Amino acid sequence: MTKNDNNKKDIDKPPIIDIHDPDSLDPEQLIVQKISVFKKGLMLLSALAVGVIVYSLPTPDALPQTGHLYLALLAGLLILFLTEPVPLPLVMVISGIGMILLGIGDPKDVWAGYANPVVFFILGCLMLAIIAEKVGLTERLGRYILGFAGTNVVKFSFVSCMGLGIASSIMHDIAACAAGIMMMLPLMKAAGIHPGSRNGLFLMISLPFCCSAGGMGTLVGGGRNMVSAQFLEEITHGQYTIGFVDWLIYAFPGAMLSIPFIWLAVYFVFRPDRTLHFRELTEEEKGKKSFSGDEIKTLLLVGLVFLAFFTKTWHGISSPVVVLLAMTTAVFIGLICWKELHQKTEWAICFLVFGGGISLGMHMGSSGAADYLAAIFFPFFEGRGWLVLVIAIGVFASLMTNLMANVAAAALILPIAIPLAIMEGVDPTIIAMVLGMWTSFAYLLIIGCPPNVVSYSFGYFKPLDLTKAGMVAMPVGWVIMTVIAVSWWKIIGLV
């Protein structure tokens, strides 16, 4: 190759642009960058101004000073959640720093929320999904659904959301959502479905929403269910209890009914392309393929995990320990190497986003802000009958659980709501069911529930996209739960 050829080759190369180096940008790009920085700065200042305005308002008598500071911080954080001038993990770092600097919580307690056992449970479930993808199980699941539903993207989504939503009642909504996403990602990439596209938003938001809705179906579908049943028994001193079969009878029809309607709500928000198809399966892929040794080992490992979940009362090992032990075993027996697992795991999302959300929720209770909001909300519905009380507590719980883990929301509201129900002559079992079921609709913020966090970690949508879908899907869930209360619960004699 001659010198001229080399020069020509260099000329043909596109210039290397570094967005962090102003000298490498042309004037138009520089203007766009400056506008972007200005918008981000404006959002940060807006969040700070909103927080200051809320704090400058007179402190109500029933609200402690720490609660007032918390609400001011929360108001500013909500602006950052929705506009995301900085990445969401950094917003949650700001949340922790703000709680410490404002004296809302002790540093040790604030940062402890970031390492809550639930965070490790999510992390372990996400890692097990990565392992299932590595050995080929999620690809096998995708081929099975393609063979059953066909290649149409919308139909595939409906079948996936129904199947995994129902599975969430048994295998926990986090695990079902993680497995489903790992199944869909290769198909989406092959079909050219990019982050931020209508099709991508639809697929990646409908699945966690449906898995969360399905998680209400049995006691083991989500931690909120167990907490609700446990608090009912403790607060009523064993007079009222909910067993596994009881919860299944009361809640599973609600889960079955809510999944398709939640899916439909997300569909109408994003309007995906109904003509879009995934690639056709080859004849070889359509044929039955025997399970590989690694697939069998992974299935056995996952089977042992679920067995451990169901027998927890016997062995006493917590769910986070179970899934992390399974992940460690998978690395030890060579199903995946640690380097690959480490590279594919979204550590920051798990610890900072969801852990930060747990910490924020915990201090909503300890600061007195949650009790103050409940004291304002509930008196409006006293003496208005069981249905009004059910709807009021359900709506309040589903809104509150967007600001904290749904387990924390149930634990926080039940001690207030159950005595209120008894005073109103309402069976407290109904209230416990409401807390477990209505908190499944944490659709407004990423931190609202684990499936949201898992899906967000793959970068296909922004927090505001989820909020737009949630503003439609959440009221749909409320309507479904009301229908279940006035029909199914009456049929079986719960009300």
Descriptive keywords:
495 residues; mainly alpha; 73% helix; globular
- How much helix, percentage-wise, in residues? over 70%
Strand residue content: under 5%
Order of helices and strands: HHHHHHHHHHHHHHHHHHHHHHHHH
Tally of individual domains: 2
Rg from Cα? 24 Å
Tally of contiguous helical segments: 25
Class from helix and strand fractions: mainly alpha
End-to-end distance, in Å? 86 Å
The coarse silhouette is: globular
- pLDDT below 50 for ≥5 consecutive residues: which ranges? 1-20
Mean pLDDT equals 85
**Could you give the count of β-strands?**
0
Largest sheet composition: none
Q: What report would you give on this structure?
A:
The protein is mainly α and 495 residues long. It folds into 2 domains: 117-223 and 244-346, no CATH class; 351-491, no CATH class. 73% of the residues lie in helices and 0% in strands. The chain contains 25 helices and no strands. The chain has helices at 3-12, 27-56, 65-83, 88-101, 107-113, 117-135, 137-149, 153-171, 173-190, 198-214, 223-235, 244-270, 283-286, 293-310, 312-315, 319-332, 338-344, 347-366, 369-377, 386-400, 406-423, 428-438, 450-456, 463-486, 488-491. Helix 6 crosses helix 9, helix 6 runs antiparallel to helix 18 (347-366) and helix 10 runs antiparallel to helix 23 (450-456). It is globular and about 70 Å long.
